[in-house]
Amino acid sequence: MEPIVEIQNITKVFKKINAVSDLSFSIHKGDVYGFLGQNGAGKSTTMRMLLGLIFPDSGRIIINGQEFNNGKRHLLRHIGAIIERPDMYGYLSGWDNLKIFAALTDRSIPATRLHAVLEQVGLKGREKDKVKTYSYGMKQRLGIAIALVHEPDLLILDEPTNGLDPQGIADIRELIRSLSRDHGKTVLVSSHLLHEIEQVATRMLVLHKGKKIAEGMLSDLLNPNEMLVQVGVIPAGQVQARIAASSWQPMLVGASADQLTFKLHKDNIPELNRWLVMNGVNVTEIRSKHSLEDHFLSLTNDQATATRAI
């Protein structure tokens, strides 16, 4: 399947600072593509290049099979985006804001489409209220509606949960899932909140100081041989003596009054649970501590160490 967007070896330099260095990746139809990196990693610079707000010093951007450059801005009709905070007219209603932005497109967009997109983002019933009365989360939803109104192939969301409270973050997370699951949208979403991206992305890229250091499915990025597994037991002290005489001892990396921590392959978790129960241990919980954030920090720390060594 031909990708919706293909980035080929793009580089962007600002005053001798490599904001993006030889970056390549592709986004396919149906992806929720997580664009991960700390602040200053080059995420927003890459998105701005993808939207034609700035252009790369070298490399190619291909949208639906055509190379994008200053002479082919018509290709942007395939993309909808929110970069940073969406700006709207606070004294107008959500409906009027959406109608104004719809009129700026090169398409004639009927009222039925406006109603549909407002329902998609969960603003049905509040569309006649002035935007200045909206919460920040509602403004984000309206911004997403504006980005979706012309039915783009790709939706770009730059740090969409910034500034939101926990409920607002959960709402935007569920909206992204719904747009992908229920409406077949392809989404590129950037964030430094890795635990949030981990819950919505189907594929992801880790960016560090403008360079790609990892890309793939979540299962590809995490090393199943190095799962940190926390096991709640009663009491832990007596269990340790039994573990010391077993094959599990090399995998035990930590212990407290009521919890043991093992480093092992994920396929060994059921076997460990059976062994504990068969040996009379009361197991209160088993949960994985390893996450995308652990892996990301490991990757970026390794990269920083390698850079210092050079």
Provide structural commentary.
Residues 5-234 form the ABC transporter domain. Belongs to the ABC transporter superfamily. It holds the Pfam family ABC_tran. There is one protein chain. With 310 residues, the protein is α/β, with parallel strands linked by helices. 34% of the residues lie in helices and 28% in strands. The protein is built from ten helices and 14 strands. Helix 5 (166-181) links the parallel strand 7 and strand 8 (186-191). Helix 4 (136-148) runs parallel beside helix 5.
Task: Provide a brief overview of the structure.
GO terms for molecular function: ATP binding. 34% of the residues lie in helices and 28% in strands.
Supply the helix-strand structural class. alpha/beta
Largest sheet: 6 strands, mixed
Order of helices and strands: EEEHEEEHHHEHEHEEHEHEEHEH
According to DSSP, the number of beta strands is: 14
Strand order, main sheet: write it out: 6-7-8-3-9-10
Strand content: 25-35%
Pfam family, one: ABC_tran
GO molecular function, one term: ATP binding
Family: Belongs to the ABC transporter superfamily.
Domain ABC transporter: 5-234
